[in-house]
Each structure stands twice: as C-alpha cells, then as structure tokens.
Specification:
The structure holds two protein chains of two kinds. Chain A is mostly helical. Helices cover about 65% and strands about 0% of the residues of chain A. The radius of gyration of chain A is 24 Å and the shape is globular. By secondary structure, chain B is mainly alpha-helical. Chain B has 13 helices and no strands. Classes of the chains: A mainly alpha, B mainly alpha. Chains A and B meet through helix 1, helix 6, helix 7, helix 8 and helix 12 of A and helix 6, helix 7, helix 11 and helix 13 of B.
Amino acid sequence: MINYLIRRLFWLIPVLLTVSAVTFIIMRSAPGSPWDTSEDRRQVDASTQKSLEAFYGMDKPMWRQFTGYVIGDWNSQTHEYACGMICGNLGPSYRQRGRSVQDILFGAPEGKTFWQSRFGYSLRLGITALSFAIFLGIPIGIIAALKHNTIWDYTALFIATSGISFPSFVLAIFLIIIFGSWLHWIDIIVDDWTVAKYWFMPALVLGFGTMAYTARLTRSAMLEVLRQDYIRTARAKGLAERVVVLRHMLKNALIPVITILGPALAGLVTGSFIIETMFSFPGMGRAYVQAIGQRDYSMIMGTTVVYALLVAVANLSVDIVYVFIDPRIRLEE
Amino acid sequence: MTTPQTTTTNRLAELNDVFRPSKSLGQEAWSRLIRNKASVAGMVIIGFFFILSVFASVIAPKDPLELNSGKRFLPPPFYKGQTNIKSEPEFLLGTDGLGRDVLSRVIYGSRVSMVVGFLPTAIIMLLGTAVGMISGYNGGRLDNILMRLTDVIYAFPDLLFFIIVMVALRETFIGQLMNGLILLFAALAIVNWVGVARLIRGQVLSLKQKEFIEAARCIGVKDVRIMFRHLLPNSLGPLIVWAAFSIPGLIITEAILGYLGIGLRPSTDSTDIFITSWGALMLDGQSAINTQPFLLLAPAICVALIVLAFTFLGDGLRDALDPRMRGTQ
C-alpha cells in the first residue's frame, strides 16, 4: 500500500515535467518576444530589449531556460540564484511588472487571508459548486432509484442526461439573459464578491454538470445495491425502511460517488475560467483568460502547470480514497 | 416425388412463416435505433444543421458580410428591446455591432461547427484505430510507450492545451491557414487520438483471446487480414458510439475557443467558405446583452441544440449497437 502510494507520487514528476516541457516549447515557439507587441504598441529599443531579456533569463540557450524554469538558474545580471518551479517559483509575469506568477495566483491582497487570493476565490467557487452538486445530485439520484421506472425516475434521468451534455457556458448565457437582462433578478455586473447572494448564479451554473453526473451515478449505484441479498435480509428482519435506505443502501451506493469528488472539485476549479469570465468573477480562471488576452506567456505557463498539478493530484486522490473506503479493493497489482 | 432441392425450399418457406426474416447485425441495430424517438429527433436536428451548413449561401437571407451603417445592434422585429432602437423587419434576428444580419451569420456559423465536429473526428478515428490496433495486437514495447503517453496526455487538461496552442501559434504560418481552422484541427486531433487508441486497444486485447481469432491464426491468416477482417469490424460498435459523443465535445470546444477570441478568425473576405463561427458570434454578442441579446442567444441555442442532438443520437447508438449496455452508464 505504502509502496503503491510512493510509486504513484513519483509518477507525478514525469507528468508535470512533460506538461511544463510541452507548454514551454509551444510558448517559446510563438513568434516575437513577449514585449515587442505590448498593448500600447510602444516599441522597445535594442538596449532595453537586451536588458529585459537578461532580466527574464531569455538570453540563455533554450534548454537552459527550461532547466532554469524548472530547477532554477543564476540571473546573468544580478548573479543571484533563483529557484524554479520545484520551489514553487513560477517566474515573473511579463505584463504585470514586479509581480511573480505565484504572487498573482496565490497572493492575497494586503491584509486579507488566503481565501481572498485569486486561487482562493476559485477554490471557494469550486467548493460552493461542488456542495450544490452533492446536496442536490445525491437526493435526486436516490429518489430516481427508489421510484425506478416511474415518472420521477424519467424526469430525473432526463435532467441528468441533458445536464451532463449541456455546455455550462451556454447555460450561463441563457440564465444571464433571462434572469439578468430580462427579469432583473440578478445583477450582471457585480463589483463586490463578498456578498454571498452573488455567488449563487455562478456556482449553480458551474455545478450543474457535476450535479447531473452525481445524480446519474447515485441512481445507477443505488439500483445495483437495491437487488443485493443483504437488502432483502434487512427488510426481512423488519428494519424500518428509512434505516434500510440510509444505512444499508446509501452507505454502499455512495462509494463511487465519493471517489469522483476529488476529480470533480479539480474539474470545477480548473474548468471555471469561462464561467468566471462571464460573471467577471475575480478568480484564477479569469486571470488566465486575461493573460491569454495580453499574451502574458509566463502567466499562461504558470497557471497551466498549477492546473495540471491539481488534476494529477485529484486523480491520485481517487485511488487513495478508494482503498480506504472500500476494503474489497487491494492495490497489489 | 419431390427432389431434395424443393424440400429445402419448402422447409425454408416454412421457417420463414415461423421466424422473421434474418437481418444482418447492422440492420438489426438500425431498426433498434429508429425505434428510439430521441435518437430520431437528434438525427433530424443534425440533418437540419447539415443542410443549413452546406447550402448556407442559398438559405441565408442576406449577405453575412454586408455592413449596414447606422443599423448597429438592431433588435429583431419580434423583440421589444430595452432601448428605443427601432427594429427593421428585413433583419429577422436583428443586426450585430457592424450592422450585419445576425440570422445569416448564424447560418454561416453552422459550417464551422459541422466541419469542426466531423473532420477532426475522422482524423482522430483513423489515427487512434491504427495505433490502438497495432499496440493491442502486438503488445510489447510499443504498447508500453503508448500507455505511458496516454497517462501523460490524460493529465494535461485538454482545454488548456488547445488554448496554449491557439494562443502561441496563431501568428505562425500554420495558424494563418484557413483563418486558423487547420491549427484548431491539429490541436484537437493531437489530444484526442489517445482516447480512441486506448478504446481500440482494450477491444483488441479482449477480442484477441476469442476462439475465432485463434482459429483464423491456426489456418494461417495473415496478421493484417486478421486486423481488418476480424478485429476492426468487431470493434466498430464502440468506435461509432465514441464518435457520436466526441463530435459534440469538439463543437463545444470550438465554441469556447471562439468565445475566448482565439478560435477561428472571423473573415471579411466573401470568397471564404468559413466566415464566422458560433463561438465568435457569442463573443460579439457579449457586449450588447441588453440591446441585442439575440446576437448571443441565437448561436447559444444552436450550440445547445446540436450538442443535445448528438448526445441523444449517441445514447441511441449505444443502446442499438450493444443492447446489453442499455440503461447503464
């Protein structure tokens, strides 16, 4: 078990290396240097360009730039050693002068907690969306399974099927136009995200697909458990229906649901950039989209690596959680 | 006295009265498919958009590139906008920020979604099937490399990869080809073929153990022939289902990229086939949500419709091609 865990943890390294290598190569093959096409189109003169390149380490050969990004390197101007990605240093942003990528993503504004940082906002939105998905999805799945092949089941199944396939940003467009523009129930432009009620709409849109998926997963797992012998035994010995459902069925049916929670949260945090942009939510996803618009290459790269790490860790968490909650699974291989 | 020949014929006729005429697997699946109402509805919608995209130049009521100055963001005639801009009946869905007819642009936009759905899927299927089949059939080192490669590609959030590729290579030669469509196809194909390869590999691994493959090998059938005559037809079902679910995914991806402003470049050249995409239209519509919401709504409805259509068709195909899977995940 411990061996398996260690092996899986080590497997993260080549994955992250490949992701950063691919991103690095693609980003560096983009024509032009990062600053000759700045927003104001002001051209940088040759000497400034040179010192800028030295500052960002771009005067070095390609392979050294990459090792510098991952491990660290000496700056050719200041001769100071700057540790790379392995120390959590994602490099300076090309557009937001004087700020590093990790500072933009994880650093909170003055006097605020981590939860006020861009990543903190995205994480909170993801958690809100996930709890919405769980607290709505699981009951829907249970009801659908208990009332199998009735109108309740069909309705739930229809919601689940369309919810999974329906693109969330299209749903966002519909909701914004109907409730924001036509009915004026919600504000389209929100400045103050500390007010809880504004979180409702983006969390709902973001969590809708996961909710549908959770409902379908719960339903099929419940249907499977429903036919087990121990359920018949439980009923036969005269247990109350509530006890049978909650303690015997649900406890077993939730195993597959619990295992998707990790990847679901990662998916919600990483997949939220469209929703964040639409609702102008101050999270990591919107920072990413803004970086795309400004061609802030180091920012795009750093965020991609963070996203990839999140996804990889989430996938790893499934396997670990599985072992703990389902004793039938052994990971000897 | 009857000859043996006629006895057989009689017997066959007799059997025909008892049993229904024999059908091939394909016919069987088809008849199951057309009994599924949701799938038929899906096929009708897909057919509708297909015709729309092929005959866009005939169907579109106006020139999608014609600028009408002074007619910016006109709301459609049936919609009472929140501003006092008067609509004009000739623009059925109103106009965009440059006074171009929204309906015509949406019709032309269907072309991009159709081609983005089908063409990369075809490339992905060819590539993935070839690699998956060879690696599953031969095993060994190639198989190992493929599996490690899939692990890495699975860890890469695919939408992020598309975004990076589109942002970085947009200004290069390949990014300019067909307004960026070629680059988009390439990016989509590079990521997605792995899934197909894995699917086919799994199929081949389980089929390989079956008796009929063993029998074929015993009588000396060549490997290539076994692959094409036995393995490929038997893995076709899951492959078709995969394609039906892949197409809407690609359409959504294109719409997202377009919405972020890094998809297809909207063209102003009337000789271009692909003038605009639904994603790009939504990006235009974002700024006029109160005056002209249909610039945003119309393409969004189209994306939703076509995605749901493909999903229902995919569900139907899965049930039809593998009835045992019915009702499960």
